[in-house]
User: Which sequence fits this backbone?
């Protein structure tokens, strides 16, 4: 098995941007995923500013594996939809300018019925974003977790080829009561990015809980093997949202992935 390319969700370190980059490099990451809503906002950066970011990354031997753009609502929700779509397009251009080709967001729940207004809205918006992505060189990846893999693939198959890919998050799936093992069998060919996030189901409370990497229900050896069969050569990006000591826990997560 080739050595994994490991990324870190930079915001999870809870450090100022430049210090977070330096810390990510010291922890042994190959790349970082940057939050383009709260951490780096496209409207605040000129061409000179973008060149400075790229130089800082190069100085720390880091790439950007993805930009996260966590909008409050999905693309199925009509409230402020036009503004949300335009902001997403701006982030896609920003991603390309930073040397990155993947923008991650939760797109909204995939409707059961293809006759529903929400389905039609998703189709129109994601087709538009897909065309924009092809023009600028960075595409949208739907983060898993709000539905099972088969439903997400049903949507992808209905869209123009290449309009939407998948950011596979096994922890999110488990937290929301889905099977990561079953989902990868469905979405595997469409995966453009992976969040290395672990979780367990708390049967007593009827909900899922995030855990440190390697201590939950995700079989990462199996997951890596399945993705390899589908030709995935991208990054495994550590996501640890609720760590008491984020730098230490994320460091351990990087070491865990390196040991597989």
Assistant:
């Amino acid at each position: 098995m080739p050595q994994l390319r490991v990324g870190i969700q930079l915001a999870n370190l809870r450090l100022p941007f430049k210090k977070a980059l330096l810390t990510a490099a010291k922890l042994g990451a190959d790349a970082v995923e940057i939050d383009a809503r709260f951490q780096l906002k496209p409207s605040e950066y000129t061409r000179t500013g973008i060149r400075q970011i790229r130089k800082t990354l190069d100085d720390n031997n880091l790439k950007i594996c993805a930009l996260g753009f966590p909008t409050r609502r999905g693309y199925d929700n009509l409230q402020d939809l036009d503004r949300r779509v335009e902001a997403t397009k701006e982030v896609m251009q920003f991603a390309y300018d930073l040397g990155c080709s993947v923008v991650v967001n939760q797109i909204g729940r995939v409707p059961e019925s293809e006759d529903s207004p929400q389905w039609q809205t998703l189709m129109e918006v994601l087709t538009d974003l897909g065309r924009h992505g092809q023009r600028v060189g960075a595409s949208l990846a739907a983060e898993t977790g709000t539905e099972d893999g088969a439903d997400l693939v049903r949507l992808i198959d209905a869209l123009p080829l290449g309009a939407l890919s998948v950011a596979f998050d096994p922890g999110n799936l488990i937290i929301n009561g889905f099977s990561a093992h079953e989902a990868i069998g469905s979405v595997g060919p469409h995966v453009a990015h992976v969040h290395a996030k672990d979780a367990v189901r708390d049967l007593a409370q009827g909900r899922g809980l995030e855990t440190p990497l390697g201590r939950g229900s995700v079989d990462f050896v199996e997951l890596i093997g399945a993705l390899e069969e589908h030709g995935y050569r991208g990054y495994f990006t550590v996501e640890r949202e609720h760590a008491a000591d984020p730098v230490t826990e994320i460091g351990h997560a990087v070491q865990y992935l390196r040991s597989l």
Remarks:
- The CA atoms of residues 110 and 152 lie 7 Å apart.
- DSSP finds nine helices and ten strands in the chain.
- The two ends are 9 Å apart (CA to CA).
